[in-house]
From TrEMBL:
Database matches in InterPro entries: Cyt_c-like_dom, Cyt_c-like_dom_sf, Cyt_c_Planctomycete-type, DUF1549, DUF1553, DUF2231_TM, Galactose-bd-like_sf
Stretches that traverse the bilayer: 20-38, 50-69, 85-105, 117-136
Record key words, sorted: Heme, Iron, Membrane, Metal-binding, Transmembrane, Transmembrane helix
Protein name (database record): DUF1553 domain-containing protein
């Protein structure tokens, strides 16, 4: 039988040839099938079927021959396993798809939907299997290595210099042996890991670590210390490229310099350094404040920028006019548009320091500053008001702590220390999401803490290293697990690609040169970690934050991408100077914002780039990048100009605890509370008032969906929009003695859905005594229509049922539900829980850390802004308000619209076009159209 093994080997080696047939055929079949949807192109039907049949046959043969190749040749490792499993799955799914196709043709299935679904899933698995196969053949970084920032960083000139140095030395010192070994290991990493790593150990040979190198492979030992000519490794790398056993294969032979370095290493005893191999570049940890260069510029940022401009042959442009600067400053600091009157006054102000005064004034507006910057920090710290994990309690908000920290301008080092070593209210950050069911080892909560801190605070990618040694940095699996163990109450076992490897982690910080985090308990380790994190020597922490703020205010970071802080900055002196200045300010976040915004560099005209790629490769700073308004900024701007976009917030930082509860009749089925059914329900509250003179009695009322309000049998009000709080003076309807409140509430819809009454009445007597009556569980309700006099104060409701408190989950907190005059206040979008409109505009779900949002407009955004029901509803409400406010005066509508939205008057041509749309007596739809045409202008949607 052994004599026949060559047959199986031969068939196995046909796998690379056969595997391309199902890739091409099945993908083409899916494409052709999509063309026939809706009964179109019926002529393609038979051809499509034959392509599916042939593709399925080749998928089965490819899986079979791939299995033979695996069993007969020297392939092993996780990557091989995954490729094999997805390949077999593709063959199985292709077979099932063919069966579904045959059943459909024979009329046993009603249509092609099941077959098309099967074909789609087959192509998905085929794509995954193909990608894994390509990773096996070309290396796991084959695709990503060509991306900006991921290019091969190995520079052979360093090896050549080392070789020259060692050849000229009479003896090699220990330090030189370490350098030689690290250089040889770098050669292995860039040329050999794609076949001989822990993830893919072809021939059972691993060159990724000391144990694997000196153990050798299935052919035996590959290194004979001191004897390169007897070492299998050296023999293989010196073979002719055309010989069978040459290594590395695939035509990627080593350079002469690399071969000589390996030979020299073996000759000198094949010393293995204890130092970690640094294949990828790493930024210096320490921060040193650079000396400011000589320059005619006065601002420190501009002094450094001037030197950079001179080196890059860039001319300074004139700074932007006051109107543009003011709009930019308002949106960046408080997230709102400046009012027309403020713009006019600022333009007329002759004070040469007026821009600094404006920045100081805006930063002092604690309320609006905090509510604007809250979105940035919510993204960064993965904090949200609802979403995955909240229902099960496996996730916790940090909103109260975060809001207070920003409001108080808490020093950044204190914020970081409290995030890492939690105080009350901040523990949600490292708690992470406790997913239901079985999860990947790299997503356990301790590892999430390590990943979140690494990404958000240190600009380091721990996620890749939490599954295997990183492909994009020098971080190892052992480092990632060591960091995760800091947050674990038990020792963690390392899992490579979700499989335990029998090695236990030791608690450690990602950058041990800063100190040790070891401790007997989690609390001790977190305390030690918090001290290390905020040390001045931890340059990563302060560079990362500085880089994020520069990106936020300028549109592009000094280092890109923001989460890869080992990449080269376009100006390292600028980044380090700002980071040290930030530390010396007492870690003052507002100081950092002001330092950047006061620079001439910030006040330059914005630069527009036609393609995002221009911001990634060969980037030269010339000024801020044109930025799109964020989802929150756009929503707030529409609220300011047109009409409130949102009426309720999920988090309300300033209001007193609301005593009124949103209540409704209890709906019970099978002994369980259920959602209210559509229809009318009846509510009552009886109360007794003393014989005192009432000076004022006000009512606040919101009912979802509609209501009629009666006081002492008299109809007082009715409404049908829960977002608009009814504010009523009811003093004339009250009397000493017994009184009653009665509400007929209607729940609309065709199926059960949330419904609720929110009511509050404040009665003030001439004695200054105040009585407040709120909706709560002391109210009573009934489902069936009661006696006609049920609204009177004399009606007996003893048989009625106690109402149920439905909370605020479905409505949030109505900001207008207050007896105070808010003077046109609206719900800030940063305080609103995720909404489809904001999601379409780019607000993330925050299940993961988000350090930057996509600036590119999407088709979903375009559709939402053009045809979206929600946005058009806001414009309709606004049109109604504006027609009443400006008494149907088209000229006033156009002029005020431009002043409020763009900070300027319309040009003659703009005015002519808009007035032609509105006419002499504008209609609701015409005003909506004018609003829409203004809101989609680039001048409105972008920060210029």
């Amino acid at each position: 039988m052994e004599n026949l093994n060559w047959i199986f080997q031969f068939l196995g080696r046909l796998h690379p040839l056969l595997v391309h047939f199902p890739i091409g055929l099945l993908v083409v079949a899916l494409f052709m099938e999509l063309l026939t949807i809706g009964g179109k192109r019926k002529g393609l039907r038979e051809g499509t079927h034959w392509v599916v049949y042939v593709g399925t046959v080749f998928a089965i043969l490819s899986a079979l021959f791939g299995w033979l190749l695996r069993t007969q040749e020297e392939y092993s490792g996780e990557l091989v396993d995954n490729h094999q499993y997805t390949g077999i799955a593709t063959a199985v799914l292709a077979t099932l798809t063919t069966i579904l196709l045959r059943l459909t043709i024979k009329g046993k299935l009603p249509d092609f939907r099941a077959y098309r679904a099967g074909l789609s899933v087959t192509v998905v698995f085929l794509t995954i299997a193909g990608h894994l196969g390509a990773s096996l053949t070309h290396g796991e970084d084959y695709l990503t290595s060509v991306l900006p920032g991921n290019t091969d960083v190995y520079d052979n000139t360093k090896g050549l210099a080392l070789l020259t140095e060692l050849k000229n030395s009479d003896s090699i010192s220990l330090a030189q042996q370490d350098k030689l070994n690290l250089e040889v290991r770098a050669i292995f990493a860039h040329n050999c890991y794609q076949c001989h790593s822990e993830n893919k150990s072809k021939g059972e040979l691993v060159l990724e670590n000391k144990k694997g190198v000196f153990r050798g492979g299935e052919s035996g030992v590959i290194i004979v210390s001191g004897k390169p000519d007897e070492s299998e490794l050296y023999k293989r790398i010196t073979l002719s490229p055309n010989e069978e056993g040459v290594m590395p294969k695939k035509g990627k032979v080593l350079k002469k310099t690399e071969i000589e370095l390996i030979k020299l290493w073996i000759q000198n005893g094949a010393h293995w350094s204890d130092q970690a191999l640094k294949v990828f570049p790493e930024a210096e940890m320490a921060l040193v404040k650079p000396e400011l260069p000589e320059s005619n510029q006065t601002n420190p940022v501009d002094k450094i920028t001037a030197t950079y401009f001179e080196a890059k042959d860039v001319e300074w442009s004139p700074i932007v006019e006051d109107r543009i600067f003011m709009r930019r400053a308002y949106l960046d600091i408080v997230g709102l548009l400046p009012e027309p009157e403020a713009i006019s006054q600022f333009a007329k102000d002759g004070n040469p320091n007026k821009r600094e005064i404006l920045i100081d004034t805006l930063l002092a507006d604690t309320h609006n500053y905090t509510q604007h910057w809250l979105s940035f920090w919510n993204d960064l710290l993965r904090n949200d008001y609802s979403g995955t994990g909240f229902i099960t309690g496996g996730r916790k908000q940090i909103t109260d702590w975060l809001y207070t920290s920003l409001e108080e301008n808490k020093p950044y080092d204190q914020m970081v220390a409290e995030l890492v070593n939690p105080v009350e209210g901040s523990e949600g950050f490292i708690k992470g999401i406790q997913w239901r069911g079985v999860v990947n080892a790299s997503q356990r909560t301790e590892m999430q803490a390590a990943q979140n801190i690494g990404q958000s605070l240190l600009g380091a990618n721990v996620k890749c290293a939490s599954c295997h040694n990183s492909f994009v940095s020098n971080m190892t699996l052992e480092q990632a697990y060591g960091f995760a163990t800091v947050f674990a109450d038990s020792v963690l076992e390392l899992n490579r690609c979700d499989k335990p490897i029998g090695k236990m982690a030791t608690p450690n910080f990602l950058y041990p040169e800063l100190g040790s985090v070891e401790g007997e308990t989690v609390q001790e380790r977190l305390y030690n970690l918090s001290k290390l994190m905020v040390k001045r020597e931890n340059g990563r922490l302060y560079r990362t934050l500085t880089n994020r703020f520069w990106h936020r205010l300028m549109g592009r970071g000094i280092i890109e991408p923001l989460d890869e802080m080992d990449n080269s900055p376009w100006n390292g002196d600028l980044l380090d100077w700002l980071a040290v200045d930030f530390i010396e300010s007492g870690h003052d976040l507002k100081h950092l914002i002001k330092r950047i915004m006061m620079s001439k560099a910030y006040q330059l005209p914005t630069i527009k780039y036609a393609k995002q790629e221009e911001l990634k490769t060969d980037y030269v700073f010339q000024g801020p990048i044109t930025r799109r308004l964020s989802a929150e900024q756009f929503s707030d701007a529409v609220s300011q100009v047109i009409s409130p976009v949102y009426h309720a917030v999920e988090y309300s930082p300033s209001e007193a605890k609301l005593s009124a509860k949103r209540v409704w009749h209890p709906e019970i089925k099978f002994d369980r509370n259920v959602l209210p059914e559509p229809g009318k329900r009846y509510f009552r509250k009886s109360f007794t008032l003393p014989n005192k003179a009432i000076t004022e009695a006000k009512v606040l009322l919101s009912v979802d969906h509609s209501y009629q309000l009666f006081i002492n049998g008299i109809k007082v009000s009715e409404g049908s929009d829960w977002k608009k709080v009814a504010k009523l003076d009811v003093s004339e309807f009250l009397k000493p003695g017994k009184n009653s409140i009665a509400i007929e509430g209607s729940n609309e819809g065709s199926i059960a859905n949330p419904a609720g009454i929110l009511f509050s009445m404040k009665i003030q007597y001439d004695s200054k005594e105040v009585v407040q009556i709120d909706s709560d569980t002391s109210w009573k309700s009934v489902a069936e229509a009661p006696h006609p006099n049920w609204t009177s104060e004399d009606y007996h409701d003893i048989a009625w049922t106690e109402v149920r408190n439905y909370g605020t989950a479905n409505w949030g907190r109505l900001i207008d539900f207050t007896f105070e005059n808010l003077n046109g206040a609206f719900a800030r979008a940063s305080l609103v829980k995720q909404h489809p409109f904001m999601k379409a505009l780019g607000r993330p779900s925050r299940e993961n850390v988000t350090t930057s949002r996509d600036e590119q407009a999407t088709l979903l955004q375009a559709l939402e802004l053009t045809n979206g029901e929600f946005f058009n509803g806001v414009l309709e409400e606004g049109a109604t308000l504006w027609l009443e406010r400006y008494n149907y005066d088209s000229k006033k509508i156009v002029e005020n619209l431009y002043l409020k939205s763009l900070g300027r008057k319309p040009s003659d041509s703009e005015k002519e076009v808009l007035l032609s749309v509105l006419g002499d007596r504008p209609q609701l739809e015409n005003v909506q159209d004018v609003f829409w045409s203004t809101m989609i202008l680039p001048e409105f949607q972008f920060i210029n």
